[in-house]
Design goal:
This protein has 384 residues and is an alpha+beta fold. 25% of the residues lie in helices and 8% in strands. The strands form three sheets. A five-stranded mixed β-sheet has the order 5-1-2-8-9. Strand 8 (345-350) and strand 9 form a beta hairpin. The longest helix has 52 residues, at 11-62.
Length: 384
């Protein structure tokens, strides 16, 4: 009786099969990753469209867009700080909540108090720490890491989108031009502290601290003026200069470019200041990972940015640069940049509510022109 011989795979055949499978996986994986990124970018675009729709519904009700930072006043009697606690006050995002199907969170905010300081932290802690999906870009892989933050803590960072203050870099009163910046004056609704006589907050963009602008103020055209852009939050796991999405503070030598309108001064002055920021950043000096800290915090690098550094700049790789207060957070930064993890550019919502993808290769002069609301520049869409 003869037995049937059963032949198995040889070692070479097995290796060939494994190699073929590996090649197929290698070919398939980029396509899967590209599809996932396309879905994430689409969701990011939809988030910005939702913000744009909310802005226009707000405008229809109030005949203006919201303030970049709202006015509130803490109770009298602070011994350690002035009665007017102006650095953690409410953002445009907070004012837009009722128009984004977030009315319960809006109703939980007591706008008479700031969001994250002393009494305000106690009164508004619930709303201050809520995670709102519409403010999270899914490609921002550090956003809302670790779940909801507890009141008073700096982590995790829960806002991926910032309103534009245009080309203004002057934080407070500018000694170079004897004029105001976006954080000047701190108007006091309870008349507890006051501000410099005759001083008015100012920015070239559609948003500003304590100031509102409407469509009537955007003489460059709403389709040619940036409203919001995405920007990366800080890396809560690694507060170092190795991450391009972190910030630097205390760069006093960069103050030479602190002006009401950076597009109106020689660009060499701007680049010299940016080089100082980059030098400090790469040296690991006073690095902060708190940018994008709260959607409710009306401040530069938290919910506001300027259109001075082009998106995803490799030359100036920091997220924001503050020329004051070394070791502090990046709020009230001189430069705050648009950034994303999308290949090749960032999603930008213009003041007409449209969302467009602005490439990293856009020229600095075009990026500045898109940020200003009334400088009279003419920009065509084929320039970016």
């Amino acid at each position: 009786m003869s037995s049937r011989y059963r032949r198995g795979f040889t070692l070479i055949e097995l290796l060939v099969v494994i190699a073929i499978i590996a090649v197929l996986i290698a070919l398939l994986l980029p396509a899967v990753q590209a599809a996932r990124e396309a879905a994430r970018r689409s969701q990011c675009t939809n988030n910005l469209k939702q913000i744009g729709l909310a802005m226009h519904n707000y405008h229809q009700t109030n005949n203006s867009f919201p303030q970049g930072k709202s006015e509130s006043a803490a109770a009298p009697g602070f011994s350690s700080q002035p009665p007017y606690a102006g650095w953690t006050e409410w953002s445009a995002q907070a004012e837009l909540l009722p128009y984004m199907e977030q009315a319960p969170i809006y109703s939980a905010i007591n706008f008479s108090f700031c969001g994250g300081y002393s009494y305000g932290q106690i009164v508004n802690g619930t709303a201050w720490t809520r995670i709102i999906p519409a403010f999270l870009c899914p490609s921002d892989n550090n956003v809302a890491m670790g779940g909801a933050p507890s009141p008073g803590t700096g982590q995790p960072n829960i806002n991926s989108y910032r309103g534009s203050i245009g080309t203004t870099t002057a934080i407070y009163w500018s000694s170079l031009t004897n004029s105001a910046g976006y954080a000047s004056c701190q108007p006091d609704p309870m008349y507890l502290a006051g501000g410099p006589p005759g001083c008015q907050p100012y920015s070239t963009g559609v948003f500003c601290y304590w100031v509102v602008n409407g469509i009537q103020n955007i003489t460059d055209g709403t389709s040619n003026t940036v409203g919001f852009s995405e920007s990366l939050v800080g890396d809560v796991s690694n507060p170092s200069f190795f991450r391009r999405n972190n910030s630097v503070t205390g760069v006093t030598s960069a103050a030479t470019a602190e002006v009401p309108d950076a597009s109106g001064i020689p660009y060499t002055t701007v680049t010299m200041a940016l080089q100082q920021c980059t030098q400090f950043y790469r040296a690991g000096t006073n690095i902060s990972n708190a940018n994008g800290n709260r959607w409710g915090w009306g401040a530069m690098s938290m919910t506001l940015f300027n259109t001075v550094v082009t998106p995803n700049s490799k030359q100036y790789p920091f997220n924001s640069c503050r020329d004051q207060c070394g070791g502090c957070g990046p709020d009230d930064s001189e430069f705050s940049n648009a950034q994303s993890n999308h290949p090749g550019g960032v999603n930008v919502m213009f003041c007409d509510g449209s969302v467009r993808f602005v490439k990293d290769t856009i020229g600095p002069n075009i990026w500045m022109a898109l940020g200003t609301k009334a400088n009279g520049e003419v920009v065509s869409s084929d320039q970016y």
